[in-house]
Here is the input.
Amino acid sequence: MEPTEFKRLPWLDGLLDAMDAGIVVLDRHGRVQFWNRWMERASATPESGIHGRELVEAMPSLRDTRLHNAVRDVLETGAPSVLSHTLNPVLFPLRCVDGRRMVHNVLIRPFLVGTAAYCLIQVTDVTAVVNRERVLREQRDARYRAIVDTAPDAIVTTDTRGVVQWANGAAANQFGFQPNELIGQHVSLFLAEGSPDWSGLLERAPAGRPAPVELIGRKRDGTRIDLEVSLARWESEGRSFITGVLRDITERRRTREEMKANALAMRQLAEQTKATLDALPAHIAVLDHGGHIISVNKAWAENGPQAGFLGDGSAIGDDYLEACAATRSGAEHADALIEGLRGLLRGGPPVSIEYPGEHPGEHPGQSAAGARWFRCLAAPMAAGPFGGAVLMHIDITEIKSMEAALRKLVGQKSTLLREVNHRVKNSLQLVSSLLTLQTMSLPGAAERVHFQDARSRIDAIARVHSRLYQTEQFQTIEFGSYLNELCADLSRASGGDTLGSIEVRAERIDLPIDQAAPLGLIANELVTNAIKHRGPSPADVLVALDRAGDLLALTVTDQGPGLPAGFDMRRTRSLGMRLITSLTGQIGATVTLMPVERGTSFRIALTMPETRGPILEDSAAEWNG
Here is the structure.
C-alpha cells in the first residue's frame, strides 16, 4: 500500500524555513518531500526543481557515497547515522554565501507519519567552526580577540563588579558607542533601569548550565532594544572575569509577540466558529478522511437519536457511514448518501440530497406521510490535519409545507387564468358572430366590408386567448404556430386557393402576450390588405418570421400592384395603415417598406424582451401525495 502523502503545514514549513540549518525530508523511495530555504540558498537549487525527485537523481554526485548508503540504511533498517565532515569529505555540494565550499555535518534519522516511513536529513553548517578552529590553531595567542571581534553579536567582558574590560566592534555598533567609550564603564550604561545585577545572573543560573536570559537594553540615544544575554565566568592569572554575549532579539521578540497574537486570534476565531455552529439549528458534523466523526455542533450532540435525520444519535469517534447504514427507515436515501459521501471522501463532488426523515414519534414501518424532511449537504474540507468533509442535515419540513401551499395556490391561479382566457375567447367569438349577423343585414357592400374587417381583427385577438388557455404558459405564445393558424384562417375566409395563396415561413419563437397580440393584429392587417388589394391577379403572399440575436422581424410580401407613388404611412387616411402605425409604436417596433421588384413588402422589427424564469420549478417533488 502506498504511504500516506507527507502533510505540508504552513506554520511548520515556516518554522523549518526559519531554522539556521538544512532540513530535507525523503519518502521511502528516496524522493524529496521537503527542501527548506536554507538548503535552497546553500545548494542554489530551488525546492520546485527537486521536489518529488530522487535525491541522487537530482544530485548525481551523491550516488554510492557514504551519505547515499546512510539514507538507504535509514529507509531500509531505520538505523540513524551521523556523518561528520572530518570523516566524510564528500557530502552535499553546498556553498556559503561568499561562494566558498561549505563545511557541514549531516544527521540522518527515520521518523513515521502514521504508518508511512520517512527520512529526515539535517545539515549543519560548521564552516565557521572549522575556520575558528583553524584560526585558534594558527594564532593561539590571539584566538579570543580574533573570534569575538568578528562575531555578529555584541560581546563584552567585565570584571565581577560589572565594569567593562573589553568589548567587540559589534557591541559598540549595537549600542551606538565607539569601542573605546565602553571600556571602564559599568554594564548598566547599556542596560535599562531595573535590570538585574550582572554577576547575580550567573548565580541564579543552574550549576554548570548557565541559560540565556532576556533583558531590556538601551542604545546611546535611549532607544529600547531587546537582548538575549548568555554569560560565562572564567579565570585568568588569579582574576575572575565575566564574558557576556548580548544578542539583539528585538525582531525575534516582535515576531514572537505577533505569533502569540495570531495564536490568540486563531483561538478566538475557532471559538467564534464553534459558537456560530452551535447557534445554528442545522445538525453539523465534521468527518475525517475515513468517515469517522471528529466534531459535532450542539444541535447534533443534544438531539440524539430522536432527531430523525440519517445517522442521528452517532457521536464523536463513530463511523458515520456505518451509522447511516444502520438507519431504521429510508434505506434508499441512506444508500444514496453513503455512496455520495464515499465519493466525496475520495475527492468527488459535493453532496446534496433531500429525503424524508423519521418523525420523533414514528415507529419503524410507519407511513411516511407525516414525516419530517431533511436536506443533507456535504462538502470537502481540504484544510486542517484530518482532511475529510463537513456535512449538515437541515430540517426543511416547514419549507416543504410552504412549497406545497404555494404550489396549490399556483395551480388554482393557473386554472383561473385558463378559465379567464377561455371566457375572453368565447366572448370575442360571440362579438364576432354578432358582427357576422349584422353584416348579413347590411344592404351596402361598403358597410359590409367594414364590418368584416372589424370581425377579422376581433378573431385575431380571440385566437391569442384561445392559444393561451390551451397551453400551460400564460405569459407567452409560440408565435410561429399562431401565424400559421392565422394565415390559414385568412386564406379560408378569402376563398381559399381561388383568390391566391399564403405561404408562412416562421421560426418557433415565444412572445409575451403584450407583444404577441399587437403583432398578431399587424400581421392580420397586412395579410388582409394584400388579399383585398390584389388586383386582377390571384394574391401570392409570403409571411416570414425571423430572429437574429435579440432582434425579431415580421415581413409580409405580396405580388400585387404595389402602393401608389408618394405613399406615406403617417399621412394615409386608411384605418388599417393607421392601426399598423399605432400598434408598432405600442410595442416599440419599427415598420419599413422594403424595396421589391413587384408588389409590396412591409418589415416590422422589434427587440425581444428578456426571458423570465418560471415561478415554480416543475421538477419539485410532490408533497402530501
Q: What stands out?
A: The mean pLDDT is 79. The first strand starts at residue 22 and ends at 26. DSSP finds 18 helices and 22 strands in the chain. The first helix runs from residue 10 to 18.
